[in-house]
Automatic annotation (TrEMBL):
GO cellular component: apical plasma membrane
Protein name as catalogued: Proton myo-inositol cotransporter
Cell compartment(s), UniProt: Cell membrane
SUPFAM superfamilies recorded: MFS general substrate transporter
Length: 646
């Protein structure tokens, strides 16, 4: 146990025995509790659950009284207001990354965009987000959290305006880069800000709400995509420009919202920090929290020294180095588990499973995004109940199994891939590689080709592999499947990117399981854990690095997916992601400590031991110490019990 933690125990046990003595002394008239409260006495009670405190009966009574008292002390609504306003940054992150796919469908027709420009408009945002997340660390340290959130909303507003008014593709590219800069700064600042203003027992839940807003933004974007897809002219302007609305709300909201008190204390603005701390803690005494933050900063400065760039100090000081590895590792494995590929690929997976109507694809993507959102909500509910570690481990285990099922689904469909039975010739006389494939599997892996076929009961007959239309993947470039309305009337089917098989339900099952398991844990926990594992002096830089890693792996995985699928086939690609997820599981099992209910200032001590011994601390769980606030003091809830007292 760290020195600080043991001091806490000593202090709180002393408070307990004082209080019990007080109680015994005053018991005859039964006025102990009320007179203490009337005198405004604020104190901490610690109850060591398996300790040998003799007077267990009165201890239990006291504990119950303290618990009742604690339940009456509500967390001030102001903390929720701060969290929701900052989580608008998460909403914009989700909206702007999600909306582009629908906008591109319209843009590529209107501005005649080729594949390269489409690629550029998608990946420029993610690339800019990676860079600005890294730079955001320096800005957060220098300016504070609030100016960074204001800066990100300015980027979002300017980007949305540029995009909505764009007359050419170059302006569009500029707008997407500006939006990316906003996403990067927001993605690293918002979780830190929420973690710093939240009380310990609600911190996990409030930071996880940010990811709920991310997935909510993605879902909202897909609905907007669906709604405006019918507006062939200028529909994309509304899709891309609408994000200005939440950005403006956030900007004006934050003009009136305060800076993080932790950052202010670090910068020596102690009066202001105290004022804000009392504002966000309502009627609770802030002395202990304030002292603990201040002492912690002073101790850290003594231990680590204040000279040299933060990243060098982090790398040379073992606890922060370990925390950095854990944080970046979590973000890397989040992306390597293929979330964005699965989301991107969901429409095809659903089509494979028998949904033949192409116009529904966009709405199907909305269903996927909604599932992701819904199960992130489960994460918000679970995070303070089961803790970060168990939630992440459970989620990644399920995700790995789901990826294996997805891969098996693709494997089955490749194994029983239908034969190509017809070989029509290109009317223009050109030689197409498509007509050389003898099985659907080869045809589906070639991005230029698709399968045109008829169904006899559930068997594929009269199939041919032909080039896909350049403007839309919904039909063939020539032949029987080149006119959508005609081929549907003639009961022909067109499969692009997939092969019709009776086992496609396996991939559908894999997709559903994937989202159900990924969304509550692996989606939000990397952000939540990163916001709490770094000490104050290293928090901005630590979060900048881990968010940067998230964005870099996001680009890598999405840019390489199609090539990976071409070289390794689809099932190979999903087995590869399952392999990464399996490695992530080992990493998390060994290295991720439980941070639930701990004060931000205590978390550093979890990284004092060698890396990958964190799992061992689990065994301490049976012997927990519980701090319960009696009227207004700062408190520290036990790991096991936070849910009981909310
Ligand atoms: O946590 C989020 C969330 O899971 C999103 O759905 C995903 O698109 C992001 O890449 C991820 O960072």
């Amino acid at each position: 146990m760290s020195r600080k933690a043991s001091e806490n125990v000593e202090y709180t046990l002393r408070s307990l025995s004082n209080l019990m003595g007080e109680k015994r002394r005053r018991q005859p008239d039964g006025s102990a509790g009320s007179s203490a409260a009337a005198a405004g006495e604020r104190s901490l009670i610690a109850a060591e659950s398996c300790s040998s405190i003799n007077s267990q009966a009165s201890g239990g009574e006291l504990e119950r009284a303290a618990r009742r008292q604690f339940q009456q002390d509500e967390t001030p609504g102001f903390v929720y207001v701060l969290s929701v306003f900052s989580a608008l940054g998460g909403f914009l992150f989700g909206y702007d990354t999600g909306v582009v796919s629908g906008a591109l469908l319209l843009l590529k027709r209107e501005l005649n965009l080729g594949a390269l420009w489409q690629e550029l408009l998608v990946s420029s945002t993610v690339g800019a987000a990676a860079l600005s997340a890294l730079a955001g660390g320096v800005l957060n340290g220098l300016w504070g959290r609030r100016p960074c959130i204001l800066l990100s909303s300015c980027f979002f507003i300017a980007g949305a305006a540029l995009l909505a008014a764009a007359q050419d593709k170059e302006t569009l590219l500029g707008g997407r880069i500006v939006v990316g800069l906003g996403i990067g700064v927001a993605s690293m600042t918002v979780p830190v800000y929420i973690a710093e203003v939240a009380p310990p027992h609600l911190r996990g839940r409030l930071v996880t709400i940010n990811t709920l807003f991310i997935t909510g933004g993605q879902f909202f974007a897909s609905v907007i995509d669906g709604a405006f897809s019918y507006l062939a002219k200028d529909g994309w302007r509304y899709m891309l420009g609408l994000s200005a609305v939440p950005a403006i709300i956030q900007f004006f909201g934050f003009l009136f919202l305060p800076e993080s008190p932790r950052w202010l204390i670090q910068k020596g603005q102690t009066q202001k920090a105290r004022r804000i701390l009392s504002q966000i803690r309502g009627n609770q005494t802030i002395d202990e929290e304030y002292d603990s933050i201040k002492n912690n900063i002073e101790e850290e400065e003594k231990e680590v020294g204040a000279a040299g760039p933060v990243i060098c100090r982090m790398l040379t000081y073992p606890p922060t180095r370990r925390a950095l590895i854990v944080g970046c590792g979590l973000q890397m494995f989040q992306q390597l588990s293929g979330i964005n590929t699965v989301m991107y690929y969901s429409a095809t997976i659903l089509q494979m499973s028998g949904v033949q109507d192409d116009s529904r694809a966009i709405w199907l993507a909305a269903v996927t995004a909604f599932t992701n959102f819904l199960f992130t909500l489960v994460g918000v509910w679970l995070v303070e109940k089961v803790g970060r570690r168990k939630l992440t481990l459970g989620s990644l285990t399920g995700t790995t199994v789901a990826l294996i099922i997805l891969a098996l689904g693709f494997l089955l469909s490749a194994q029983i891939s239908p034969r190509v039975t017809l070989n029509p010739t290109d009317p223009s006389g050109q030689n197409s590689t498509c007509t050389n494939y003898s099985y659907c599997n080869g045809c589906m892996l070639d991005p230029d080709c698709g399968l045109c076929y008829r169904l006899n009961k559930s068997n594929v007959v009269e199939s041919s592999c032909v080039p896909v239309k350049k403007e839309s993947t919904m039909a063939a470039a020539w032949g029987r499947c080149s006119n959508e309305t005609r081929f549907k009337r003639e009961e022909l089917f067109w499969a692009y990117n997939f092969c019709p098989t009776p086992y496609s339900w396996t991939t559908l099952l894999g997709l559903i399981l994937y989202l159900v398991f990924f969304a509550p844990g692996m989606g939000p926990m990397p952000w939540t854990v990163n916001s709490e594992i770094h000490p104050l002096w290293a928090r901005s830089t630590g979060n900048a690095c881990s968010s940067g890693v998230n964005w870099i792996f996001n680009v890598l995985v999405s840019l390489t997916f199609l090539h990976t699928a071409e070289y390794l086939t689809y099932y190979g690609a999903f087995f590869l992601y399952a392999g990464f997820a399996g490695m992530g599981l080992i990493f998390i099992y060994g290295c991720l400590p439980e941070t639930k209910g701990k004060k931000l200032e205590e978390i550093e001590s979890l990284f004092e031991n060698r890396l990958c011994t964190c799992g061992i601390s689990d065994s301490d769980e049976g012997r927990y110490i519980e701090y319960i606030r009696v009227k207004g003091s700062n408190y520290h809830l036990s790991d096991n019990d936070a849910s009981d007292v909310e």
